[in-house]
C-alpha cells in the first residue's frame, strides 16, 4: 500500500511541475498556436524526447513571464503533496501497530488478581457448587400467615439443603461464616463498633451461647454471643433472627435492646441492658439464706412477667416466647423483673398453631410435650409454673415424690404432666388468690386458661387493693 501511495504521489507531483496537454505532450505557453495539421499524436510507448519546437523560450517574452509567475506555485504544490503523503504514511503505520497490539492482547489471557483480606470472604470458586432450587426462606416478616422465626425456618433450611449438604457447609464455614451466606439485612442500623465493647467477666453459659458483663462507654451491658463450637451457618442465622426480633421490641418489662457488635458474623454479640441481680432462679436460691425477696417483691415480679406476655401476645402478629422459665426472667437492683432470651421465640397469628416441642420440659405445657401443637396459651401454662416456683422457691416438681418416696424422673414428670396427673406444688403459706391464679394457668385444657391480659389484670388489682 505504501508503494502505491508513493507512485501516485510522484506522478501527481510530475503532473503539477510539468504541465501536460490533453494529448500526452508537454504543454508550452505557445502550444495553442500549433496547428492541427503539423501535430502528430505521440504513442504512449514512445520515448519522451523534448524538442526545440515544443520548447521555444526565446520566441516570445510571454512564455518567460508565464513560467516565472507560476514557478513558485508549482514548487509549493509539490512540497504540499509530499507533506500530505508523509502524514498519511505515519497514520497508516500507527494504525497497523495498534491493531497488532490489540490482537496480541486478546490472544494472551491474563490471570485474575484477587486481593485477600483477613475479614473478607473467600474469592468465588472456579467451579461453584450447583445452586439449590429452594433457597432458605427469608427472615420473619409480619403478615397474615404463620411466619417462622427460628426452628421452623431452620428446619426448612435443612430440608432444602439436605443432611449431606449441611454437613459439608458446616465443615467448610465453621469458624469463618461468610456474610453473603447469611441474612443480615437491617443489622447495620443497630451496629456498634466492636472496639467500643469491653468484655469484663462471664455471667452465664448455656448449650449454645454465653453471656458476658461488658462495658460500653461506662455503661454496663450484657453481651450474648455464640460458643466457639456453635458457629455453623444454621446456628449463626438463628442467632441473627433472635437479634432482629429483640431489636423491634420496646417494652419496659422486656430487657432493653442496646445494639449489636461484630467483626465477623461468628463473633456477633447481642447487647442488652444489664440486670444486676441476675435471673429469677438464682434469686430464689439465694433467698433461702438472705430472705430479702419478700412476698411483695414476688407479686410485683409476677405482674411484670404477665405484662411482658401481654405485650408479646398482643403484637401483630403475636409473639410466643416458647421458653418462659425462671432462668429467662432477670431482676435489677430494685427487684424489677424483665423477660429475656428470645432465642426460640416465634411470631404467629390467631389461626395457626405452633409445632415442635421447644423449651425446658419442667415449664412446658402438656400439649407441647404431647404432640407439639400449641398456641400462646402455652406461655400461660409456663407462667403458672413460675407462680408455683415463686411460692415454694425450689425447682418445679423437685419437692414431689413418687409412691416409693423417690424424686420423679424426667420421663415420669413428662408422662404425668401430659396425663394431667402432676402439677407443681404450692405451699400452705401461699396467698389464696395467688394459688388459685396459678391453678387456672395450669389447666390441662388450653382453652380453660386465662389470657395474659386477664392474668395481668388480676395481679394488678390485688396490688392496688393491698396499697
TrEMBL record:
<feature type="compositionally biased region" description="Low complexity">
    <location>
        <begin position="29"/>
        <end position="44"/>
    </location>
</feature>
<dbReference type="InterPro" id="IPR011009">
    <property type="entry name" value="Kinase-like_dom_sf"/>
</dbReference>
<dbReference type="Pfam" id="PF07714">
    <property type="entry name" value="PK_Tyr_Ser-Thr"/>
</dbReference>
<feature type="domain" description="Protein kinase">
    <location>
        <begin position="197"/>
        <end position="463"/>
    </location>
</feature>
<feature type="active site" description="Proton acceptor">
    <location>
        <position position="323"/>
    </location>
</feature>
<feature type="compositionally biased region" description="Polar residues">
    <location>
        <begin position="142"/>
        <end position="165"/>
    </location>
</feature>
<keyword id="KW-0812">Transmembrane</keyword>
<dbReference type="GO" id="GO:0004674">
    <property type="term" value="F:protein serine/threonine kinase activity"/>
</dbReference>
<feature type="region of interest" description="Disordered">
    <location>
        <begin position="101"/>
        <end position="175"/>
    </location>
</feature>
<protein>
    <recommendedName>
        <fullName>Protein kinase domain-containing protein</fullName>
    </recommendedName>
</protein>
<dbReference type="InterPro" id="IPR000719">
    <property type="entry name" value="Prot_kinase_dom"/>
</dbReference>
<dbReference type="GO" id="GO:0046872">
    <property type="term" value="F:metal ion binding"/>
</dbReference>
<feature type="binding site">
    <location>
        <position position="327"/>
    </location>
    <ligand>
        <name>ATP</name>
    </ligand>
</feature>
<keyword id="KW-0472">Membrane</keyword>
<keyword id="KW-0547">Nucleotide-binding</keyword>
<keyword id="KW-0460">Magnesium</keyword>
<feature type="binding site">
    <location>
        <position position="328"/>
    </location>
    <ligand>
        <name>Mg(2+)</name>
    </ligand>
</feature>
<dbReference type="InterPro" id="IPR008271">
    <property type="entry name" value="Ser/Thr_kinase_AS"/>
</dbReference>
<feature type="region of interest" description="Disordered">
    <location>
        <begin position="27"/>
        <end position="47"/>
    </location>
</feature>
<keyword id="KW-0067">ATP-binding</keyword>
<feature type="transmembrane region" description="Helical">
    <location>
        <begin position="73"/>
        <end position="93"/>
    </location>
</feature>
<keyword id="KW-1133">Transmembrane helix</keyword>
<dbReference type="InterPro" id="IPR051681">
    <property type="entry name" value="Ser/Thr_Kinases-Pseudokinases"/>
</dbReference>
<feature type="binding site">
    <location>
        <position position="341"/>
    </location>
    <ligand>
        <name>Mg(2+)</name>
    </ligand>
</feature>
<keyword id="KW-0479">Metal-binding</keyword>
<dbReference type="GO" id="GO:0005524">
    <property type="term" value="F:ATP binding"/>
</dbReference>
<dbReference type="InterPro" id="IPR001245">
    <property type="entry name" value="Ser-Thr/Tyr_kinase_cat_dom"/>
</dbReference>
<feature type="compositionally biased region" description="Pro residues">
    <location>
        <begin position="120"/>
        <end position="140"/>
    </location>
</feature>
